[in-house]
Backbone:
């Protein structure tokens, strides 16, 4: 069993041996790092512009709310057009938005509402980007390494989560939020360079030429695919409650300053990396449903504890443990989401998954921010932890273990 676990862990890193995947993965980690620096700068800047917990919670909501309006058309477009060109457009969009916010911040021309507006614009670019970004994974890695590549993408995001907040906290503390926004703009250029050099295979356009028709075809597919519905329901049951910890973290650690905020986010990221390192062994021993259930209970407990603990050292431990549980949950969901549909439906299915995941987080950010404004941060965190535990009841009718994990297409294409 020990040898099997070692071999499984080694296979988890195998996609990095492929030059194409490795170059994009490195560029993506740099870009994710810039995004986390942006998040630290935006969250901290809002605490300087407004003392309202609701406004602080709306920073994360503004980044996620475009998912409600944009992600389904984005998924249809990613199945209809050249994904490489679409990604070049979205990356350039985000460069312009981050640079614009950085310049305005350095000129001291930012208000709470303009900060939310630029965060919203960046969110639109990110949502336009995500379905195509995730759908290209099979095009840049060997078929047998697809699942490992998906897990490595999640690990790369958490490498950035470990590094970006610490860098962001240092930049914000020493130079101000404006420079964290400008550095985020620069961080996109590695991905842009990769896309300019990448010569991908021609993308077969859908027979359907209208975006609306492509979206409706996706809904028809989901309606006839119970395993896809199970993934979406389980993701939604987790996401609404899960967002409270990170959305309210700027308020939790306000006594510890910008560097303390960055360090706490780093603790979360390091915990996620530790969780990612343990995942190969845990997947050999436990079912996906069992792993997700235990990790959800742990994450809910840490969310509750974050509202009760005040010592900085203990908060770091809470965030570390929460990060390890977080990667255990989302890595499982992400792998299933990327393998639950055939290639011609992949981007649209992923757009629905992202709609549920990010949409639930956007709703949760607003709800828990409003509750924190009325009743206090500890109360909001306690109720969100309870919501996550109650959401686990969805496992009774929507299991992911067994044949569902194979995610064979439930229907043939019309």
Residues:
């Amino acid at each position: 069993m020990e040898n099997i676990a070692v071999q499984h862990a080694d296979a988890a890193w195998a996609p990095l041996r492929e030059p194409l995947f490795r170059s994009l993965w490195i560029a993506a980690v740099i870009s994710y790092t810039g995004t986390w620096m942006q998040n630290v700068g935006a969250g901290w800047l809002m605490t300087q512009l407004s003392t309202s917990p609701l406004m602080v919670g709306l920073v994360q909501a503004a980044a996620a709310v475009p998912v409600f309006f944009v992600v389904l058309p984005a998924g249809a477009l990613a199945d209809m057009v050249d994904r490489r060109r679409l990604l070049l457009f979205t990356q350039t969009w985000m460069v312009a938005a981050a640079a614009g916010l950085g310049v305005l911040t350095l000129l001291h021309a930012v208000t709470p509402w303009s900060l939310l507006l630029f965060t919203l614009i960046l969110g639109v670019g990110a949502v336009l980007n995500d379905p195509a970004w995730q759908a290209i994974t099979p095009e840049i890695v060997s078929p047998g390494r697809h699942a490992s590549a998906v897990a490595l993408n999640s690990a790369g995001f958490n490498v950035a989560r470990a590094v970006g907040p610490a860098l962001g906290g240092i930049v914000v503390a020493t130079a101000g939020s404006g420079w964290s926004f400008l550095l985020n703009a620069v961080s996109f250029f590695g991905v842009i360079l990769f896309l300019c050099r990448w010569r991908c295979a021609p993308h077969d356009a859908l027979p359907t030429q209208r975006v609306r028709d492509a979206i409706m075809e996706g809904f028809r597919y989901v309606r006839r695919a119970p395993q896809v519905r199970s993934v979406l329901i389980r993701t939604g049951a987790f996401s609404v409650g899960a967002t409270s910890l990170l959305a309210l973290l700027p308020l939790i650690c306000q006594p510890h300053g910008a560097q303390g905020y960055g360090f706490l986010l780093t603790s979360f990221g390091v915990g996620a990396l530790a969780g990612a390192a343990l995942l190969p062994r845990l997947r050999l021993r436990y079912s996906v449903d069992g792993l997700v259930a235990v990790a959800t209970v742990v994450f809910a407990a840490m969310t509750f504890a974050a509202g009760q603990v005040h010592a900085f050292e203990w908060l770091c431990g809470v965030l570390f443990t929460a990060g390890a549980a977080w990667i255990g949950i989302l890595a499982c969901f992400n792998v299933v989401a990327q393998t639950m549909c055939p290639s011609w439906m992949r981007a649209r299915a992923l757009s629905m998954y992202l709609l549920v995941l990010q949409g639930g987080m956007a709703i949760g950010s607003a709800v828990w921010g409003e509750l924190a404004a009325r009743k206090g941060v500890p109360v909001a965190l306690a109720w969100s932890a309870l919501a996550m535990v109650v959401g686990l009841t969805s496992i009774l009718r929507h299991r992911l273990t067994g044949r569902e994990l194979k995610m064979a297409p439930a229907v043939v294409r019309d």
Observations:
- Residues 12 and 148 are 5 Å apart (CA to CA).
- Residues 1-10, 402-414 have pLDDT under 50 and may be disordered.
